[in-house]
Each structure stands twice: as C-alpha cells, then as structure tokens.
Write a structure and sequence with these properties.
Immunoglobulin-like; mainly beta; 8 domains; 6-stranded mixed sheet; 2 helices
Length: 959
C-alpha cells in the first residue's frame, strides 16, 4: 500500500501518474442473522473489509459452506454456526446466528484514546474530533463492547488521521461504525524576538521604532502587531510602548520583555541621560475614592509635565487627613509636596459608599423551597445604582410547610450590610415554566427511553418542537422493536442535576399507519437511593447498567387524573399528587394493531405562586402621611426646618416593598423606590426639603375635562390618569396624575344618551370630569367586498371545504354582504382533523395595498346543518406580526403555505370582546370591543365535538 509513480507514453511524450495503492487493513468479523428454516444459499454473501484509506469495502464470497453436522441447526432457534467462503483464493470465516425477531439495540463501544476515556460517543453521534498538538504522534485507540466483536483501524497519515472502530454485534445485528478523527493543530509560536531601532545609541526622551517577531515551530516567522503584545520592564531605566513605538522615559539599563499567546522574548537596552534643560509645567490631577471612615490610599508619586520630553514620575508627600473628613459622604481636596520641585500636588478625595440596600420578595408553593435571589440592588452615595451578592441564612422546611409569610436575613458579601427576603407561601398556584425542556449548552434536563427506533431518537421529545405529521418528522418511536418501552425526563435546574417538585405530565402522541398511542401505560417517578447519572445512550437505556433499569427504583404516581381515552394529534394532560424526584417516566405497551408507540413531545410544568403586580404606596414624613401624594406625581417640595431632613418611611401594600434612599449632600432629595411583590418598579419619588418659596408654592389647581363617544353596549374604559394643571414659575404646567372614578351604572351604556362621570384626583381635593356620549348608530363596514374585487378586502381561512369540485363552499362569501345561506364558508371534511381549530378573517386592502384600519365592532352570522355548526370556542385576534403578502392559497393557507406568518401564533394578539347573544347559528351576532388598529382581523374557532366543521354565512368588521 502507498503511492507509486507510474511512467508511460502519450502522443510520443513521456508522462507520469501518481497511483494510490490500497490494501486490506483489517478483515472485519462477519456475523449473519437468519430466521429458523432459512436455506443456506439465501444467506447474504457480502463481507466487509477495512481498507488502508479508512473506508469499508463490500465483497461477495462465492458461497457459504458449513459442516454437515451443522445443517440441522439451520432450523433450531438460538444456534450459532461457523461458516466459510472463498474470496479471491482466500478463506473467509463467518458466524451464522439462527434467531427469531429483531437484533438487540446497537451496542455502544467503550473507547479510550491513549489513557483517556471517550464519552458522548453514541449511535446518533458516532464520530468525535480530537485535536493533536503540532508534531505530536498519533495516540493508540482501544475499544471494546459487550456482546460484540470490535475491530480498530488505527489512525495514520494514509487514512487522514482517522481511527475507525467497527462493532459487529454477536447476535447478527448490523455492523456499526464509529470514528475518532484527529485534527493536527497549526504550528504555535515557539519564542519571540524584539528589534529596537538604533539600539546602540538610545537617549532619554527619544521615540524609536520597535518590532516584535514571532518564531513558529515550523521555522517560519511573522511580525506581530505591537498592540496585541503584552510588555513589561525591569531595571533602572523606564520605557513605554505606544502604537508600535518605544518611548524612552528615564535613563539607565532596562530589560524590555514581551509576551504573546504564551510565547516570550526580551531585549536588554541602555538609555543615556538627556543633557537638555527642562522646566516643570504642571502636575496631573489625582482622584481617589474611599469608603466611609476609611483612610484613602494616595499614590506615592505624581506625574509631572515638562516643557519638553516625556512626563516624569516624582515622589510626593501628602498632608495628613483629619478623621472627621471621613465621617460623612463628601468630596474634598488634599495637598501634597512634590520632591525636588516647587509645585503643589492636589488630590480630590471622594468618600463614597452604599447608603441603602433594597429588601426583596419572592413567592413559593406550599412545601417547595423558595428560590433565593443571588443579588440585591444597592444605592450608592454618588447616585449610582449597583447590585451586590447576598449570603442568605438557612431556611428550615417547616417555614414553607404552610401558608403564610416569613423573612430571611441576608448579608451582602464583603460588607457588614444586611437585607431581608420576604417569602410568601401560598396554596394558590398557576402553571410555571416547562421544566422538561432541553437546556441550551447542557445535557440536562435529559429525555431518555428504555429502547428506540434508531431513526427516531428520544431527544425529539423535549426539543420544544411539536409535530403531529411528517413536516417535520420530529418524534420518538419504538417502531418495529419490543412491545413495551418507557420514556422519561431526568431533571436539571439551569443545567445542574436536581430534584424537582412535579404533579403533572403532558404527552403529545403521534399516529400513522405503524405507530400511535399506547394500549396501556403507567406514570412513575424515581425513588431510588442512588442519585442517577445521565445515561450514556439516552435512547437505549436498557442496554446499560443503569439505575433506571431497576424496577424497584420506580413508583407509580398516586391520585392520577387522566384523559378517558388517549388521543393522537394533541397534548394529553395528566395530573397526580405532588412528588419530589430526579426523574419521571411513562411506561407504555404498544397497541395491538401497531408496531410501536410514538411521542412528539413531553411537557412537565413547574407550579408557581403568582406574585402581585400592583400595590398602593404610602409615604410618611416624621410619622405623618405625605401631603398631596399621588402615585403618578414624582417630585414633592416640602419645607425644610433649620436645614434638617426629617425621617422618611414608606410601605407598599400587597406584599410590595419600598426602599428609602437618604439624602447625603445638601440640596439632594430623599428618594423612595416602590416595588410590587413581583419586583416591578411601581414608582420612584423624590422628596425635596427646601426653603425656596417658589418651589414650595407649586400646587395642583385643576383637572382637565375629557369626553368620549361609544357605541350602545360597548364597554366603557375610563383613563387611569388625567391631566392636572400645576402653578409653575412661568404660568401653568400639566402632569398626568392617577384618578379614582365613581361607579358607572350599567344601564347608562344600554341606551343612547349622555352622562358625566366624576372622579377624585388622588392626593388632592380636585374633581375630574369625564363626559360620555352613547350612540346607537353603527360605524362604517370596513371589511366588505361585495364585487369580489381582487384589489379590495380579502377574506381568508386556514382551511376550507373547496378542494372537492362538487363543493360550493367558498371563503370569499363571508365578506360579500350577502346573507344567503347557500353562499357560505365551511371547513367541513368527511375525515375531520384531530385538531378542531380553524381560523377565518379579513385582510384590509384598498387599491391593491394592505392598509391599517381602526376597528371597534364586528358582526357574525353562523349556519348549522347535520355536519356543521357554530363553533364551540371563539377567539377574536388582530395581526401584530411582520409585513406579509396575501397568501396565494388564501382559503387553505395552513396546509399549503406552512411558512406564512399567519401560521405563527406569536403573530396574533387576542382582543377581548362582548357579544349581544350566545354564539349560535341562526341570528346575526353583534360584537363590540375596545377600538384596535390592525391590518388583519380573524376569528379563531374550534368545531363542536359532534360536528365535522364550522359554517359561516357572513363576517363583518366595522369602524
């Protein structure tokens, strides 16, 4: 084997060709599997040979032969028969396995490279890459596998530095190939050399050229950019490197050292003293920050600027600082005497620190440990807001074992400052985050299965992609494998193995001709004493020695509430008594008429207690409520008595918290930061204590009057704020302040007329007025297209019964203004989808262009017959997604234009509405809602369970 040169003649000229000669590197073990009673002549005659270039070639023997005494074994299950065949005059040996059914799952080899074990090699990821230092020799690869013959072809230059591992299961399963691909690193820098221009005649205050050369392992060189190199110096002299130039600051001997990417080099230099006379011009200022009561660390030298040459460092002696200067937050100046000069150095010292630390709040369900925040906000004396890490006291389980509120003390790391965590424990919970989803950059949470079809790995069940069809085919199955299998999730919190509190499981089953929902199932949680590890091959856990394979480590959940019948094509939801566990699984037996079970997604949701988003702020000054406080008014001017700042306290209702930031300098306000229980800032208020009469005189004097026109039956939404006039320095200024309105009688909205609503501006005696006129006149129809004009409004639907030429149902009918029952839209189907949802709506267009309309009303007219009816669920939505084109297949865009933005639920926003009657077929239904702007409006509907579709005669949207 190798490359040889072959010479020959072509058209009278001598030519050369380089020929790569391949040779057999290894004869791979051959195991054939047949069913009992198979004729020997029917056994596959191909054998695999590993070639020196790393490939595997298939060759056919002339025939297989076995001993006469073994022929009877061809009909006996469990027999292993030795065979021989002839290949190019060589005898090939093979094993024939006589067995029923399918071979076992693929065997994953145990591999070591050198002395290092390889992890993560699986049948789904059969190759790993290993880097090799430049010039290093290739390490030996060793591999073994249970119940399989393993052949290793070592890596070499001839096969592209790839070590191939061939695993032949002894039960006759298919040959598996794994590989370790070595990648040689580029040559690294061995050392650096430095070259200085005029190195033999260097003088103080000169600037000379400097270059750094990198010398690589392969003998090549390159000039490095100076700004990428790290320089250091030692010796009496001083130099500085700037933009590739070397500045000579101080005479004397100096060693200049360079480092780049781990490589080092140096050069010895001697700098002669300058003979020029120089005059000191100025001293660069010094700024130092120190903590309260902490002596500042002032520099031992200052930088002096001269009339010529580079700045020089001179020693300095600073004045003593009186202790009282450090007893409060302030900025002051310190003077210093510079050695050898008749100039004064000045240092600005700022005494700064944390003046206030916020307290925080969290919520947690009963019996679940609360999540402790890593840090809290701090408010500094200089006005900055920072964060600091906190070490919290330990929490006992009995503290969160029942409903209530408790506090946890915490200390800011590196300080003596403290804070508090307020924990509310509640039995009122809601669905939280999906704790089964894959975590980017970590293997946990990890989906696992006892067994799988190799083409349908278990990693598909927690990848956030739900697909009930082949577009895409994203699912786990055990098609054509054993009847029973289990699928589960090993939990992790932020990628770290951890127990989770679980009381629910949702499973989305997929169905086709070969797979579907299971015949029976059991939901179990892990109770083993051993902390589980991530399986090496998550799709085939039963092939490993793993704690998940011990039935004693699993226990069925209790008080299970499940669907009466499992359904494919939708999520099936299960609830049960809460358990705390590392893993949950569903153990299943496939249906009798299927070859396997199929799951597209598994979801497990945490429970959380909803934290309050609102709260009322209360501020007190010296124990009395702040006068004229309004949550939307930020600044308050209060009279200062003898220049003193009174005590300010604050609180927030609904478990909210307030932080008071004191004033530390004259003229600064006291700040109050109010936060809701969920951490949202409700407001930040500034209390200015002053003797300025102009500021103290600014008061609210009147609230602006407002009015609105609404439709009969339309809900009235009054503003939460009103413009309020304040006396200002030059005339009046307005600010929007919170208001409380009186209750509006419901009958005022049911008839045409006019009335006035009055309200109180919070924190004042001002009265706000809002005039409402109710009209019974309808707005303009915005969605009609009676002439089916292709440049006007376009009706559309996710699905329509218009594929069959015999159908007369058309989506264009729903906005033509015609209420004839024979001109209707339906999505009726003789084989309705397992997903009952369908959408129909209108794209607003004018002269062929998509336009935005303001819509506040709608009308609907549904139809019913033996197969169709009004929907069981009706949601109004407006489009909020990116720009779009009208779907080409506007009557069936979901099936034929899967990539259209209309198919993304995130592009739609629900619009709350009020209907004047029940959603039923027959009479026209009038709908009102708060006015919205939209380019597209649609109704998202679900058909009734006993019907094969939804039917609509007319749909109208009005101004």
């Amino acid at each position: 084997a190798g490359v040889v040169t072959v010479k020959g003649m072509a058209d009278g000229r001598e030519v050369e060709a380089r020929v790569e000669v391949l040779a057999i590197a290894k004869e791979l073990p051959t195991v054939k599997r047949v069913a009992p009673g198979t004729d020997l002549n029917a056994v596959d005659k191909y054998v695999s040979i590993a070639v020196t270039d790393g490939s595997v070639q298939e060759y056919e023997v002339d025939k297989w032969e076995i001993a006469a005494s073994d022929k009877a074994k061809l009909s006996v299950a469990g027999s292993r028969i030795q065979m021989t065949g002839q290949l190019g005059g060589e005898t090939i040996h093979a094993t024939l396995v006589v067995e029923e059914g399918n071979p076992a799952a693929p065997a994953v080899p145990n591999v070591t490279v050198g002395d290092e074990a390889v992890t993560g090699l699986t049948s789904q990821k059969p190759m790993q890459y290993r880097t090799l230092a430049y010039g290093a020799s290739l390490p030996e690869v060793v591999a073994s596998a249970e119940n399989a013959d393993v052949t290793v072809v070592q890596a070499s230059a001839a096969n592209g530095m790839r070590a191939s591992i061939y695993v032949q299961p002894k039960d006759g399963g298919p040959l598996q190939t794994y590989a370790i691909q070595f990648l040689e690193e580029a040559p690294k820098i061995d050392h650096l050399s430095l070259q200085v221009e005029q190195a033999d005649g260097l003088k103080e205050d000169q600037t000379v050229k400097l270059s750094v050369h990198a010398h690589y392992q392969d003998g090549t060189q390159a000039v490095l950019p100076a700004d990428k190199v790290t320089f250091s110096t030692s010796g009496e002299g001083e130099v500085a490197v700037r933009k590739g130039m070397l500045e000579l600051h101080k005479p004397g001997g100096v060693t200049l050292k360079a480092e780049y990417d781990g490589a080092k080099g140096q050069v010895e230099l001697t700098i002669q003293a300058s003979t020029e006379t120089k005059v000191a011009q100025s001293i660069r200022p010094v700024n130092v920050v120190t903590d309260l009561h902490q002596e500042p660390s002032l520099p031992a030298t200052v930088t002096v600027e001269y009339d010529k040459g580079f700045p020089k460092a001179h020693k300095v002696t600073w004045q003593a600082i009186p202790k009282e200067k450090l007893d409060h937050y302030q900025t002051f100046e310190v003077l210093g005497k510079v050695e050898g000069l008749n100039l004064e150095a000045r240092a600005k010292v700022s005494v700064e620190g944390i003046v206030s630390v916020e307290e925080v709040s969290v919520t947690t369900p009963i019996a679940e440990a609360p999540q402790l925040p890593e840090s809290v906000r701090t408010y500094d004396s200089n006005g900055h807001v920072s964060s600091a890490k906190v070490t919290w006291d330990a929490i006992r389980p009995e503290q969160y074992a029942k409903e209530g509120v408790f506090t946890v003390n915490g200390r800011l790391e590196g300080t003596q400052l403290t804070t508090k965590l307020h924990v509310r424990v509640s039995a009122q919970t809601e669905q939280g985050a999906n704790i089964s989803d894959q975590w980017t950059g970590s293997e946990l949470p990890l989906a696992f299965a006892s067994d799988s079809n190799p083409s349908d790995p278990v990693s598909n069940v927690n990848d956030k992609l739900i697909s009930y069809n082949n577009q895409p085919a994203n699912r786990w199955t055990n098609w054509n494998r054993k009847k029973d299998a289990s699928v589960g999730v090993l939990f992790g919190d932020s990628g770290i193995l951890s127990k989770r509190s679980v009381d629910n499981l949702s499973v989305g089953f997929h169905e086709d001709h070969g797979v579907g929902v299971p015949k029976s199932y059991v939901i179990e949680y892990y109770v083993g004493n051993t902390v589980p590890t991530a399986p090496k091959n998550p799709s085939f856990v039963e092939t490993e020695n793993h704690v998940f394979n011990d039935p004693a480590n699993w226990k069925p959940v209790t008080n299970l509430k499940a669907p009466a019948q499992l359904k494919a094509g939708e999520m099936n939801h299960f609830t049960f008594d809460k358990v705390e566990t590392y893993a949950v699984r569903i153990r299943m037996v496939r249906a009798d008429n299927k070859l396997g079970t199929s799951i597209t997604e598994v979801q497990i949701f945490a429970k959380q207690v909803a934290a309050a988003k609102q709260g009322q702020t209360r501020i007190k000054v010296d124990g009395k409520d702040l006068t004229n406080f309004n949550p939307d008014l930020t600044d308050y001017y209060l009279e200062s008595v003898n220049g003193k700042v009174p005590t300010v306290t604050a609180s927030v209702s609904n478990n909210g918290l307030a932080t008071v930031v004191p004033s530390v300098r004259e003229g600064e306000p006291v700040r109050v930061v109010a936060k809701a229980e969920n951490g949202d800032i409700l407001g930040e208020y500034r209390l200015h204590f002053t003797s300025n009469k102009d500021l103290l005189s600014r008061k609210p004097v009147a609230a602006a009057k407002q009015a609105r026109l609404i439709q009969v039956g339309q809900p009235l939404e009054l503003p939460t704020k009103v413009p309020v006039y304040f006396t200002g320095k030059d005339g009046y200024e307005t600010k929007d302040l919170a208001v409380e309105w009186e209750e509006v009688p419901a009958e005022n909205l049911t008839k045409a007329g006019q009335f006035t609503v009055r309200g109180r501006v919070l924190g004042s005696d001002l009265v706000a007025e809002f005039t409402v006129r109710v009209t019974d006149k309808l707005g303009e129809a915005l969605s009609n297209n009676p002439n089916y004009d292709e440049n006007s409004n376009q009706a559309f639907a996710s699905a329509t019964n218009d594929i069959d030429s015999s159908s007369h149902d058309r989506v264009d009918y729903i906005n033509d203004g015609d209420h004839n029952e024979n001109r209707r839209w339906t999505n009726w189907s003789p084989t309705p989808s397992s997903n009952p949802e369908v959408s129909a709506g209108v794209i607003f267009r004018e002269n062929g262009k998509i336009v935005e309309r303001t819509v506040a009303q709608a009308k609907l007219h549904f139809f019913a017959d033996s197969g169709t009816d009004a929907p069981s669920k009706l949601v109004l939505e407006r489009y909020i997604g990116p720009d779009f084109e009208v779907p080409t297949y506007y009557s069936n865009y979901q099936a034929y234009e899967s990539g259209h933005p209309f198919n993304n639920p995130d592009n739609w926003e629900a619009v709350p509405y009020r209907a004047d009657k029940d959603i039923e077929a027959g009479d026209e239904i009038n709908v009102t809602f708060k006015a919205v702007k939209a380019k597209v409006m649609r109704w998202r509907m679900e058909r009734k369970g006993d019907k094969s579709g939804v039917a609509m005669i007319e749909m109208t949207f009005l101004a």
